[in-house]
What does this fold into?
Amino acid sequence: MLLRTRYLQSGFQENLDLFDDAPPPPECSNPNWKLDCCCGDEEIIFISLLCGYLLANFFLWNSLLLKPMKLIAVFVHEFSHATACWVTGGKVSAIEVYNNEGGVTKYEGGKRCIIIPAGYLGCSFWGMVFVVFSGDRTASLISACVFLFALVVSLFVAPSRILIFLSIGFCVLTVGFILMDRFLFHPLLQYLTLFYGVFIGSFSVYDIYDDLMTRTVEGSDAHACHQLIPCCLPRLVGFQFAVVALGFQTLGLYLALVWMTST
It folds into this structure.
């Protein structure tokens, strides 16, 4: 036991236990899967920003301010289809995003059973990735560079006019934040990637609920899954997508906190 001596005014000595009635500090494992050391100032700021972004999305959802973000979320959805097509050996002829927040990926070949669900699930997955990577400066830079790469690739796959403007605009925005984070203020880029992740994840969940669960739209991804597997009704497919999407968002928050408390 660690003691120190204090001299009282009466001349007597008193031994004080420096850790009297105080529990020992938790030992942080690495990686900190149990979140033993959560939450310090950094994690509180992270959680506060995430909640703030969610509230902003809720109150401003139908405003023109978030229109570009909705279109970029549609792009992530369509690019996820395209990525699944490329991975399974198919060929993508066009990626289009429309002003009504719709989109289409034109492709040939590939595995339809993987390409079809890749849109909604890929969108929620990338939302999770942005959230996780926003917890570290280098990781946020990597996620921003991957995002920029996807935007540049889309310009070479017969994009629609809206997608061209969207890709160029978000390239300029993201590069601007990278430079400001490097030379002016850190962690500005982490705040941006967290916002990207929260919004894209929120959009995927809302899109699944609005398009696949409250109604059945012929031509939707859920309807296409139903055509491949007749026993899976479109709304049931939508429910399954929603469970996975919510799971991705929860996992993203957890992994981000693990990363932050382990470094």
Q: What stands out?
A: The longest helix spans residues 234-262. The CA atoms of residues 84 and 115 lie 5 Å apart. The chain is about 65% helix and 10% strand.
